[in-house]
Amino acid sequence: MKKKLFNLFVLLVLFLSGGIVNAQDTYPESGKMEPNMSEFWLPQPEIVTPGNIMTNSAPSDAIVLFDGKDLSAWVNSKDGRSAGWTVNNNGTFTVKKDVGDIQTKESFENFQLHIEWCIPKDIAGSSQSRGNSGIFLQNKYELQILDNYNNKTYSNGQAGSIYKQTRPLVNAMRPPGEWNVYDVIYTAPIFKDDGSYRMPPHITVLHNGVLIQNNTTILGTTTYIGFPKVVKHGAGPIRLQSHGDASKPISFRNIWIRKL
Amino acid sequence: MKKKLFNLFVLLVLFLSGGIVNAQDTYPESGKMEPNMSEFWLPQPEIVTPGNIMTNSAPSDAIVLFDGKDLSAWVNSKDGRSAGWTVNNNGTFTVKKDVGDIQTKESFENFQLHIEWCIPKDIAGSSQSRGNSGIFLQNKYELQILDNYNNKTYSNGQAGSIYKQTRPLVNAMRPPGEWNVYDVIYTAPIFKDDGSYRMPPHITVLHNGVLIQNNTTILGTTTYIGFPKVVKHGAGPIRLQSHGDASKPISFRNIWIRKL
Amino acid sequence: MKKKLFNLFVLLVLFLSGGIVNAQDTYPESGKMEPNMSEFWLPQPEIVTPGNIMTNSAPSDAIVLFDGKDLSAWVNSKDGRSAGWTVNNNGTFTVKKDVGDIQTKESFENFQLHIEWCIPKDIAGSSQSRGNSGIFLQNKYELQILDNYNNKTYSNGQAGSIYKQTRPLVNAMRPPGEWNVYDVIYTAPIFKDDGSYRMPPHITVLHNGVLIQNNTTILGTTTYIGFPKVVKHGAGPIRLQSHGDASKPISFRNIWIRKL
Amino acid sequence: MKKKLFNLFVLLVLFLSGGIVNAQDTYPESGKMEPNMSEFWLPQPEIVTPGNIMTNSAPSDAIVLFDGKDLSAWVNSKDGRSAGWTVNNNGTFTVKKDVGDIQTKESFENFQLHIEWCIPKDIAGSSQSRGNSGIFLQNKYELQILDNYNNKTYSNGQAGSIYKQTRPLVNAMRPPGEWNVYDVIYTAPIFKDDGSYRMPPHITVLHNGVLIQNNTTILGTTTYIGFPKVVKHGAGPIRLQSHGDASKPISFRNIWIRKL
């Protein structure tokens, strides 16, 4: 009798925790992948020397995310406190590796984003270990930042790639020490109730004025290992990645966004 | 005999007027429209003051269509001879109304186009009679040029509209005397054998760095009167329109195109 | 004093002509169109004799909208009371013209719809006056029903057209007295805050098993006169049109819908 | 001298391993994957019992690929000679495993395809080893055929999946011994000169009248191991796969195609 009661208790706990499932609901997991299985080196995008675009002030309807003075629009991604990256006195700010990623206080859906970034002139290293950072759109989908001026890496991991998904159409990098510009048009995904995409996200990117992503379909969230994942989400912040290269961190300036 | 001759005459008239077809092929024509039936004034796009973008030199893989010196990449649209518009000694050129439209010698399919245009400072007139011109993509689809700085017109006819189809998302005009920039990403249509679109053309436009067309579907060729038409075509030139305002013609500079 | 009177007169004229509103809100209206301006007869879709598909019972996850017995899933569109059309004792129901349109009680967004309809064997009339009805998706976008078996009409108004927008790819009509089947895959529009489409509606239709609309973009709500309108809306019912031909009304049977 | 010989040896080894290329063309290869890395079991599509659709004869404009009598529209994929599968005297034909795949003589681009298939009533085995076959569209993209009536497998490998890419929206299988129907609307890809997709292929599939693929983007050619590949191609045949289960082969009937 005690046994019975105990069993009932177990059943109840399982039931409340959603743990009672039919045996037939146990499924194999997919094989574990290695990072380099989703890294494709060929074809390498052609190198294009971009034209000369000067710094662009923000349109009147833009939300200025960095105006050269402070990071008040940003928080630290770990603890939600102050961003903690270094604001320089020349209207730029610089990654501070040990404090981790930063992200906008505000969340966004569809937008046009302008952002400028600069690889330090004395950058060292190769492939992914050379000025690596990234912009996570809606905190989920990474537009890669890297020094790919005379630095080869897998093409779906180079600057302007949708990281580990889609390589840029061309390589329009400026050399270290010069400022690169991304102009991004981002269309947020729309989800079905079951969490799958009714419409996946789309992205168009100009790198230094040169088209590198042309209404590219984003296949899922950025993952370092394995296939992109489809994960239901709502509005999300812009997150900037703090990645390796602590001694030679990259800098940003002139960031603004327009809701679409 | 007279009857016969008369019949022949009727047949000839019908033939010359395209009227001899099989009885079963005679269909009513659509009602004749007036120009203002496809002009929609509301909603008016919000006014956005664009940021400051400086003149942009061409990327290394671009075809330069005007480098400030001559119109050698262009011909007159009427006779295919020299363009005949006025090249100024400040790196710009100006519409010469009496010679008509000009178009590129080369034909294009999918492309990124950069083009700058300037309304004269002392422009006069209102609505469509104020700095009117246009860029015909593949010689068929017009991206409107007009002075809409403090000048209202129907919204699907203002600067940055796909003329008589789709208004711009916002009005990002600079005032007369200042240079406007269009950055255009154009996806050419693909046709079925029967002449209908398998995929219609699409267009993205930044006006002075502000998104005004976001992968907009182009519905058919630009017509001043009536609905857009679906007309099968292949590669086509970029055509610049010579339109009214002979006394105060608009100017262009810094035109380049990249095949996609 | 004369000046004042004249001003009053001007004000009166402006007022009567709708011209006195806030200065910034005064815009011309578009020209008034006639119905035949949006009726296009050519090209006429090719005639295809459909294969033999038998009546299809509903999948297990479908909402059955008519099971042959009663119209309990429907209401009258005018007053929301009982549908009022005639349920026959052979598992079909028939339009009752004087009571007007009927619509589903439930509202839908994205769906797969199966519906069968039959033109009476002794139908008379021509062009649009021959078995005219229609299915309004989300109460806004009409998929046309008409007898086009040996009956010509404007091609964007014939059976299977998105009425006054897009003609069917082919004409797969069965003759009067036989049952026609529409299998519809409908993707609801998604709107921006300003009421414009972020993604317009799309539709795929099989008519008697033959593809007649292939992921067609719907341009706006169905209007008898003028251009389609873009009108923001949420979920909406399926509405069946009561149209002309009171003496020879059409019938329906076997209607089911699956939410997507 | 010894040094020279050693160098020669190194060169030889490099040559034999494909390692002598221009230095700038040497790139790492992606990591080798295992088949189960691209097999995703969850979520499992919901089970839907399809309605009753009867055999469908071909529309008048269809190309009949199998009319119940002979395989004259097909050839063997290995040698281009006669198909070699077994035509039965009940209007069906059956896979003959040892002769391999068969494919249509004619090549296709965009099409509507109707095809019926039947798992033998006494089928045995589990997961992928149970009635496995497939339809390769344009000889490249596999729409999976399998018995998934009370047989679980990875969801992107079950009947109606775009194999190893996209699972069906639902599982609309009929039990072994009954006929399944696929109605497929296929939009061929369009390629850029560099071999990448300008527009990837798209597919809509009804399985026994139930929508299971809704204008799904096909990501690349079907591969058993690893990511889909983007491979430039033109028109291609329909290929039917001869796969395992030699003792209990599946059957087909009533196949027709309409060019779109």
How would you describe what is shown here?
- The structure is a homotetramer of 260-residue chains.
- Chain A starts with a helix and ends with a strand.
- Helices cover 6% and strands 29% of the residues of chain A.
- The first copy, chain A, has one helix and 17 strands.
- The first copy, chain A, is globular, with a radius of gyration of 22 Å.
- In chain A, the strands form four sheets. In chain A, strands 2, 4, 5, 7, 11, 14, 15 and 17 form an eight-stranded antiparallel β-sheet that branches. A five-stranded antiparallel β-sheet of chain A has the order 3-6-16-8-9, with no helix packed on it. Chain A has a two-stranded parallel sheet with strand order 1-10.
- By secondary structure, chain A is mainly beta.
- At the A-B interface, strand 11, strand 14 and strand 15 of A face strand 11, strand 14 and strand 15 of B.
Pair with the biggest interface:
A-B, 36 and 36 residues
How many whole angstroms does the radius of gyration of chain A measure? 22 Å
Percent strand of chain A: 25-35%
Number of helices of chain A: 1
Mean pLDDT figure of chain A: 91
Shape assignment of chain A: globular
Q: What composes the largest sheet of chain A?
A: 8 strands, antiparallel
Percentage of residues assigned to helices of chain A? under 10%
